[in-house]
Amino acid sequence: MSKATYPLKLPTSIKDAAARLAKEDGVSLNQWIAAAVAEKVGAVQTAAAFLHERADGATGEGLHSFLARVPDVPAQAGDELAG
Asked: From CA 44, how far away is CA 51, in angstroms rounded?
C-alpha cells in the first residue's frame, strides 16, 4: 500500500476533538483521521452507486406524468418564483 503525505489544516476545535477521540480509541491522530476519511469515502461511493443503480433506465416520464397532475393555480403568498 503506497502512502501519500498531505498537509492538513483543521480548525483547532476539530483537531482537539479528533485527538481526544483518537486517544479514546487508542490510535494515533493520523490513524484516526485516515480511518475517518476512509469511512467517508466509502459512504459517498456507496451512496453514489446506489443512486446510479436506482436511476438506471430512468427516462423522466414518471416525473412528467406526476407534474402533469399538479393543478394550474397561482402560487401562495411567499412561494412565488423570484424573477
From this structure: 11
Q: Which of 35, 31, 29 is nearest to 14 (CA)?
A: 29
A 10 A CB-CB count for 74 gives: 7
Cell numbers describing residue 16: 482537539
**64 to 5, 30, 55: CA distances (angstroms):** 49, 50, 15
- Listed by start position, the domains of the chain span 12-68
pLDDT in tens, 18-39: 999 999 999 999 999 999 999 9
- Grid coordinates representing 31 are 490513524
Q: How far is Cα of residue 39 from the mean position of the Cα atoms in its chain? A: 12
How far, CA to CA in Å, does 35 sit from each of 20, 21, 30, 83? 15, 12, 9, 47
Whole-structure pTM over 0.70, yes or no?
no
- Look at residue 17 in the predicted model and tell me its pLDDT: 98
